[in-house]
Amino acid sequence: MIRSLAYLGFCSPRAAEWRQFGPEILGAEVVGDDATNAVRVRIDSAAWRLAIRHDDTDDLEFIGWDVGGEADLGAAVERLVAAG
After folding, report:
1. Half-sphere exposure of 51 (CA within 13 A, CB side)
2. What phi-psi label fits residue 27: left (phi over 0), alpha (psi between -120 and 50 degrees) or beta?
3. How many CB atoms sit inside 10 A of residue 75's CB?
4. pLDDT tens-digit readout, 13-68
5. Four-point Cα dihedral 46, 11, 74, 69, nearest 10
6. pTM as predicted
7. Most buried of the four, 10, 23, 29, 63, by CB within 10 Å?
8. How far apart are CA 8 and CA 5, in angstroms?
9. Which of 65, 67, 49 is nearest to 9 (CA)?
10. Distance separating alpha carbons of residues 67 and 13, to the nearest angstrom
């Protein structure tokens, strides 16, 4: 089923500050913006792990889970649907 947390997406009025906070405080790499102009931050070998999009409020926007592969994704979807 779910193996690990893969990525997180946030919105914040201070999203631009992550360009400095990521490298200087977390030791992470800023890898550029995505199509929504979110600042993307890499902390390991994945393309990115955190995306912070500018908005008027601070909020969690999305969570991505690593399920291992297509078969496990199908099983996770079935389980979520069954749970309502």
Report:
1. 19
2. left
3. 14
4. 999 999 999 999 999 999 977 788 899 999 999 999 999 999 999 999 999 999 98
5. 0
6. 0.83
7. 10
8. 8
9. 49
10. 32
